[in-house]
């Protein structure tokens, strides 16, 4: 299980940074002068993309909190399963955002 945990952490480190950069970029778009000139469909697509990216960031950050709670309790096996599910859900939201 230790190997699986280390592999998950490496994967999350990579995807977390890219997702945070994407989210920051998306936040900046709304402050562009021409964003107000776009149609309602564009605003809806933007909002959905922004929410999906935010969910992906949250899901990729959640394993850190779970690690704090479960690791000291000796529940590494459970931690790996939960983290894997969070990472998969985060990837799904990242796919929607992209």
Describe this protein's structure.
The protein has 98 residues and is mainly alpha-helical. The protein has helices spanning 2-29, 40-70, 76-97. Helix 1 packs parallel to helix 3. The two termini are 31 Å apart.
Descriptive labels:
mainly alpha; 3 helices; elongated
Which series of helices and strands comes N to C?
A: HHH
State the major sheet: none
Question: What would you call the shape?
Answer: elongated
Determine the fraction of residues in helical runs and give it as a percent range.
Answer: over 70%
Q: What's the oligomerization state?
A: single chain
Rg value: 16 Å
* Span of the ends, CA to CA: 31 Å
What structural class is derived from the secondary structure elements? mainly alpha
Report the portion of residues in β strands.
under 5%
> How many distinct beta strands?
0
Poorly predicted residue ranges: none
Provide a count of the helices: 3
Mean pLDDT: 88
């Amino acid at each position: 299980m230790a190997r699986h945990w280390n592999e998950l952490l490496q994967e999350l480190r990579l995807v977390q940074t890219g997702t945070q950069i994407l989210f920051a970029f998306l936040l900046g778009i709304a402050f562009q002068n021409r964003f107000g000139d776009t149609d309602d469909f564009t605003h809806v697509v933007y909002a959905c993309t922004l929410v999906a990216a935010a969910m992906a960031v949250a899901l990729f950050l959640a394993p850190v909190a779970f690690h704090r709670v479960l690791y000291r309790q000796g529940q590494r096996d459970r931690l790996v399963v939960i983290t894997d599910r969070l990472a998969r859900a985060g990837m799904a939201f990242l796919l929607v955002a992209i």
